[in-house]
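thread: overnight batch results

M.L. [08:02]
morning all. the overnight job finished for the chain we discussed friday. pasting input first so we're all looking at the same thing
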Amino acid sequence: MTAAAHDPIKPPSKLLLLAEGRALWEAGAAVALWPLLQLTPRGDGHAVLVLPGLVASDLSTKILRRYLQSRGYEAHGWGLGRNFGPRKGIEQGMLERLEALHAETGRKVSLVGWSLGGVYARLLASSRPELVRSVITLGSPFTGSARATNAWRVYEGVSGQSSEDPRRMRQVEPTPSVPTTSIFSRSDGVVAWRCSVEQPGPNAENIEVVASHLGLGTHPAVLYALADRLAQPEGTWKPFDRGMLGPLIFPDPARPD
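M.L. [08:03]
and the structure it wrote out:
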């Protein structure tokens, strides 16, 4: 991760960090609204590789993957234990996982990455775009300051690496060549939301939700958006339609600060 010395982006406030406790409520809301969430579009059965956030494991994405399975996808965890950063063998392990799913299914694989997992997803899409159908990130810091998060010290402690990583960021920051969606929240208490803003384009977009960082993988609005995005037929990508659900559920991501 890298940052210019003059980058004005600051980490989320301590108040927002304390508010991360609402993630438990967001997970409960997903369970309560599960029957309604079954009305979202079903997929075509392609494989979806779900990458967890920093210090998290596949257990953290269990609800998300179960939901995707209920919508008809082959949802897979990354299978590499806890995410302690790009330690030796991790990037190769993810690449082998992606290649195996592609070989097993004979189809391109969608990547869903939560926080640091989204950084990995963009890295994989940059390295092997021919294997990737789409990339969806949840509160992922793929641009801006390396220290515009409240987790950079944890990252450095568990990974043994500096959060300043220009080499990887040269691959991560540019928009992938495949359909790309960044889902972010301005009330994120861990990652500064501006670090998760994608440059909109013919195959790239932002979707804003009102959620905590720790709840992004279980928030009902995020699950709805995931189902909507993944259900698009390959080669026919269109921007997300906020419809009547915005602005309370899906605020305009392009509105002024």
